[in-house]
Design goal:
The protein has 23 helices and 14 strands. By secondary structure, it is α/β, with parallel strands linked by helices.
């Protein structure tokens, strides 16, 4: 700073950097004089920057953050009010980058006070969500859109918390729907009932829309490159590709504007309002579970016309606890499969998983089930009640369907304290995805079955349970078509002609590039069956059973986008998808699969009934739990997603 004059172009940037260094020093020492100096320097950075400068919003956010620190330490309302003014100015800066503006809206919403604070906070987060369309537009490549959306962790939960603070639970659900599953929204929209109506009303526009979507998807596919390619040639190719994307996206936006101008299509491809969402809770409630720094709740979506959303406060849940339990669960799961550690340590890891399931019951599941009136164990002969879990953010890593005190005395007063003994659980990535599955045209009443078995894929550990599983399935479904040496192409060619697809193989989740998550087939080294391959399918299918590891696992930064293999099959058109939250044991997975198809076919006496999938998995999981009650890693991983 001493070497830079006030008129130097870098003067404000140097002040900004110095202020941040001083703030770091304050965080290490707690010295209030250092924080006061950081605030003074940051004020100078703002004052030295013109109002239309693109960096001004960055400096305003930085100053607001330091004033927020001062408020946290001293409780001084003046510091909070000044911080909110700076965040508000930064949020409204149209010359700033979008992420900076979204960050400012979020910080304003968290810090706002006074009688109008709930309304103002909600409006700020609505504006933040509205900016995501410009942050990750269709003109960007898929990987770039994923990167941009990954810069907004926890935004959906914060928006829901703001709507609840403003007394608008229905709006909370609408915001969760519009802020999650953004990357899948275009695909779902093209396959929705609205698109069917468009084809009936204006077939030429429907054809144009599909052609543009195909063009945009083609521009997203990876281009082969070689180390021999000249850097200049690569740059030129990338520039041309970017130009083509922009042209296609502009055409897409122009076409959407034309469609929205048609009577009855004003909200075409928009996130649906609450009355539309509530229609899809007629078979059972959809339970959103959210954890934000401000509050944690379960939002129960029902088909009630008067009050479609009920709020179940979760006072013992915190966002930090959700992260902590998720990390402890993942660590324990790793330990259960680590055969280099002592057997006693692996047993202790199973106890740790049981403790996590008990915590889930006490913190989330029991309050929700009590609110819904499911307070006793299911009685033989009664119809099983159902519910759909829709966990938000880090809660998506936790097995809500398996929550409970599974080692209780079964004769205890009040019956078992477990989800498995009270309701049949399903999951959905969003209500839109559930609606998509329910409104798709039905396939054949007796769907044919494809069994994909890859027990010995090159370069991977053998899976002896695959043979046991496939033998059991083909004996229960004699006309099933078995692919014993499946490749990517043979599978993709076979899927459209079979309503049921069962995969027995390895699965790999790629946290770095989720689109490359894949199922391991015999040619996986050269042509893996990736998430992108599956998502590109447009099928009318009933059931995909993924007897593979980690099919519902995705990168934490994109957890609300549900970029995993289970979600891809659901998006591809399968009404029911059986997936896994973590690596599964080969032999016990075969036991579970055998029991599942036994229930689905009435022990081989009838064709498979995919509409029984959720109940079949539920009963098979109960039976596996009875065999291994103290080893939850073996029976708590499998989930049902869909109708």
């Amino acid at each position: 700073m001493a070497a830079t004059s006030h008129h130097h172009p870098g003067h404000a940037m140097h002040l900004y950097n110095l202020g941040n260094i001083l703030q770091t020093l304050f965080e290490r020492t707690g010295d209030m004089k250092v924080l006061e100096e950081a605030i003074r320097v940051s004020r100078e950075a703002v004052s030295a920057t013109p109002h239309d400068h693109p960096h001004r919003a960055v400096y305003l956010n930085s100053l607001g953050g330091k004033l927020a620190n001062l408020f946290e330490v001293t409780g001084g309302t003046q510091a909070r009010e000044e911080a909110c003014r700076h965040f508000s100015e930064a949020a409204g800066s149209t010359t700033s980058d979008t992420v900076t503006r979204i960050k400012a809206y979020r910080r304003f919403a968290f810090l706002a006070s006074g009688p109008d604070a709930p309304r103002a906070g909600l409006e700020a987060l609505e504006e933040a969500i509205g900016l995501t369309a410009s942050l990750a537009p269709g003109s960007l490549g898929r990987a770039d859109r994923e990167y941009q959306l990954g810069r907004l962790p926890d935004l959906p939960a914060e928006a829901a918390a703001a709507a609840l603070a403003a007394g608008r639970p229905a709006r909370a659900v609408e915001l969760l729907e519009s802020a999650r599953g953004i990357l899948a929204a275009d695909t779902l929209g093209l396959r929705s009932r609205d698109s069917v109506r468009l084809r009936e009303h204006a077939p030429h526009l429907a054809d144009e829309l599909r052609r543009l979507r195909v063009r945009l998807d083609a521009l997203d596919r990876p281009r082969p490159t070689s180390s021999a390619d000249a850097p200049e040639a690569l740059r030129e190719a990338n520039q041309r590709l970017a130009e083509h994307r922009r042209e296609a996206h502009d055409a897409w936006q122009s076409l959407l504007a034309r469609i929205s101008g048609l009577p009855g299509f004003e909200d075409f491809l928009h996130a649906p309002p609450i009355n539309e969402l509530a229609r899809h809770a007629h078979e059972g409630p959809v339970v959103f579970v959210t954890a934000s720094p401000r509050r944690c709740d379960a939002l129960v979506l029902t088909d009630s016309a008067d009050a479609p959303v009920r709020v179940v406060p979760l006072p013992t849940l915190t966002q930090d606890a959700a992260f902590d339990q998720g990390n402890r669960l993942l660590a324990a799961l790793r330990a259960t499969t680590d055969h280099e550690i002592a057997p006693r340590t692996r047993v202790e890891a199973q106890q740790e998983i049981l403790a996590a399931l008990a915590w889930l019951w006490d913190t989330i599941a029991e309050p929700v089930l009590t609110h819904l009136g499911h307070t006793t164990a299911h009685q033989p002969g009664e119809r099983w009640p159902r519910l759909w879990w829709c966990p938000v953010g880090p809660l998506a890593y936790l097995p809500l369907h398996a929550a409970g005190h599974h080692t209780d005395d079964p004769q205890r007063e009040g019956g078992p304290r477990t989800v498995l003994d009270r309701v049949v659980s399903s999951y959905t990535t969003t209500v839109r995805a559930l609606a998509h599955a329910r409104t798709r045209q039905s396939g054949p009443s007796t769907p044919s079955t494809l069994v994909v078995a890859a027990a010995n894929a090159p370069g991977t550990p053998p899976l002896p349970g695959v043979r046991v599983e496939t033998t059991a399935i083909t004996s229960l479904i004699p006309d099933a078509h078995l692919l014993a040496t499946p490749t990517r192409d043979t599978v993709l060619n076979a899927l459209p002609s079979h309503g049921i697809a069962h995969f027995s193989c390895h699965g790999e989740a790629d946290w770095t590039d989720p689109a490359r998550s894949h199922l391991v087939l015999t040619d996986h080294a050269t042509a893996p069956l990736t998430l992108s391959d599956i998502t590109a399918l447009d099928l009318t299918a009933e059931l995909a059973y993924l007897s593979a590891c980690d099919t519902s696992n995705t990168a934490p930064r994109l957890v609300d986008e549900s970029l995993h293999i289970t979600g891809a099959f659901h998006l591809a058109g399968y009404r029911h998808v059986i997936g896994t939250l973590w690596p599964v044991d080969d032999r016990t997975a075969a036991q579970l699969g055998t029991d599942f198809y036994t229930h689905l076919t009435d022990n081989g006496t009838a064709p498979p009934r995919p509409d029984r999938s959720a109940l079949a998995l539920h009963l098979a999981t109960q039976r596996l739990r009875s065999r291994y009650p103290h080893a939850p890693s073996l029976w708590a991983a499998h989930t049902h997603t869909g109708t």
